[in-house]
Structure formats: C-alpha cells, structure tokens
Amino acid sequence: MNRLSRYIFLQTLGGVLAAAAVISAVIILIDFVETSRDIATRADISALQALQLTLLKSPLIIQSALPFMVLFGVLFTFFRLSRRSELIVMRASGYSAWRILAPAAILTICLGALSATVINPLGAAANAQFESLRDQMLGGQTGEARGAAGEIWMREQHGDGFTVITADRLDADAETLRNPVFRTYRFSETAGAPELERRISAVSARLTGGFWVLNAAVEVQPGQSPNNLGAVSVPTDIRGQALFERTRSPGATDFWDLPSVIDSAREAGLSSLPYELRLHNLLAQPLVLMAAALLGIAATLRLHRMGGAAAFAVAGAIAGFGLYFTQELLLGLGSSGALDPLTASWTAPVLFALGGLFFIAATEDG
C-alpha cells in the first residue's frame, strides 16, 4: 500500500473499531440485564457474577453483530471523508473509486477471516465455560433440563446390519446415556427386511475410547430368556463429537471442530445439516463483511456539496439491514432443508456485494 491507501485503511479501521466499541457496549449492557433477570430469579448471584456470565456469553453474540459494526464503521468513515472534502481531493488527484475502496475491502476480508478462525473458536470456548459456570450456579438445573428435553436417538451402520440406540436423556457431559436401549438388526435375504438380532438395555452407557461401557446390562434375543450381562463393553464407531447435537447448538461449536463434527454426525446417523450450514456461514463471513462495506461506500461516494449525502447514508444503512435479514431468511430456509447450505449461506452476500459494486460502477463511470 502507498501512503494514501494506508491512510484510508487506518481511517476505516478506526471507524470500525469505534462502531464495534459502541455496539459491543450496548450488547453487553442488554445481555447483562437479561442474564441478571433470568438467573437471579433461580439462584443467589452477585452483580459481579452476572457480569462474568455476560462477558463469557458475549463473544458469539458480538460476532453475529460484526456486519453491523463494519457497515456503520465504513459509513462513519467515508461520510466524514466526504464531509471534509477529502474524497474530492482524492478523486481530483486521479484516485478512482476502486482504489479508494480497495483498502476497506482488504480490511473487511481480513476481519472476516479473523472472525471465523479466531473469534469464533474463542467465543465457542467462552460459551462452553459460560454453560458450565451457569450450571454450577444453578445446581445443575439447566443440565438436567437439557438432558430431559427429549428422547435420544442414534443409528450406527455396521457390516451386516445396523444398531439403533435410544435413551431417555444425555447427561451434560455429552458422554453418558441414561436408560439406553441398543437394538441390533441384521439384513436377511430370506425375510427381505432387517431382523432384530438382539436387544440390550442398561441403566447407563458411557462413551469411552471406541466403546459403549454399559452398567447393569440385560440382553434379550428373540425366542430366548433375558440374560443379565452386568457391566459390558459394546464396540462403536461413534465419536464424542456426534453427541454435540444433543448438548450444543451448531452456533456454539468451534470452527475448527465443525468438519470432524459433521463426519461424526453422519457416522452416527444424525443430521449434519445444521453443522454444514454453520460451516458455510462462517466461510462466507469475509464476503458478508465486504458486502456490508461496499454498501456503506456506495452510499457515501456522493459528493457532500451536492446535497442529499445524509439521505444516501441512511439508504446505505437500510441496505445493510436488508443484507442481514435476507441472510437470516435464507439461513432459515437452509435449516429447514428447503435450500442446501451452500446456497443458503452464499446467496445474500454475493447478491448484495454485486449490487454495491454495480452502484459504485454507475457512480464512477456513469
């Protein structure tokens, strides 16, 4: 970068940081009030403990608000440059709009990559600590509620058949099933349908090192009396990540863990769609932030002396909200299965980025 490009880069960075500080403060304040009201009614906690919970929960929320931070930061920066006539001087010195927006585009791409690869893992770790600390404060009430939310169901394929695993609940440690039942079926050429080979019920089953360790297990085979097995180990290909679907939302899963979680969910017969959608959403973060920046720049390229600059800035902010709500709508369609994860995650940023580029090109070249 030359000196002028570095100047634009630093001005944009300062504007984004200022917007991030204001928006983050508002988010933390609102979440602090909500956390205090939610938890204080069930446990005796101090304001300092409520603040600690809020700070642990905030990174993932702040990450979701990053497009707004970029949008308002870019709007503020370029509106100020236009008001000071600095954009006029740049254009008069031979700087095109493309060279003016290049530093801001580079900054947003870097911020998007940083958001997906660094902020998200840190936020996921902080969120896990938040859930653990909240469970301690509430005496494990939330963990029991999550475990009792519904019956657990998994399906594991093996050589000559498959095993269906059901349980009353999954403990908060994401490794222990309560009152599990293992039904093993084998394919039969004569019957033309899977046949039940055996049924094993137990008090609990813990996933450890490629085995389900069952306690107080009872085996029943068709036509035979029950057989008390006691403590027994059953081999499995299911890995611990596959159980995240029952205890962790995709939004709280580490970016670097998502590929292995997707593979594990598929191996366990679980739906990997929410995790695939989350992975593509994070991969699209640089483009989402660049689209927000392009909308902000397109709304502030109009010369201040020509009037209507404030109206254009408001229009840019509205377009940014349009980007956010369109993205959320498409992600909702993706989570329902109506759209594939690739289409749901990338369509909105591509369309709005092209729209911003089109408006800038029309303003620059007529």
Summarize the structure.
With 366 residues, the chain is an alpha+beta fold. It has 12 helices and 9 strands.
Walk me through this protein's architecture.
With 366 residues, the chain is an alpha+beta fold. It has a domain at 151-247. Helices cover 61% and strands 16% of the residues. The chain has helices spanning 3-40, 47-64, 66-83, 86-92, 97-137, 141-147, 244-247, 258-267, 273-283, 285-300, 309-335, 341-365; strands at residues 152-158, 161-167, 169-170, 176-178, 181-187, 194-201, 204-208, 211-220, 227-235. Strands 1, 2, 3, 4, 5, 6, 7, 8 and 9 form a nine-stranded antiparallel sheet that branches. The longest helix has 41 residues, at 97-137.
Number of strands: 9
- Rg over CA atoms, rounded to whole Å, is 27 Å
Please outline the major beta sheet. Answer: 9 strands, antiparallel
Enumerate how many helices there are, as a single number: 12
Terminus-to-terminus distance: 28 Å
The proportion of strand residues reads 15-25%
User: Helix content range of the residues, please?
Assistant: 55-70%
Mean pLDDT: 84
Report the structural category.
Answer: alpha+beta
Given the C-alpha coordinates, what overall shape results?
elongated
Low-pLDDT sequence parts = 140-150
SSE order, one letter for each helix or strand: HHHHHHEEEEEEEEEHHHHHH
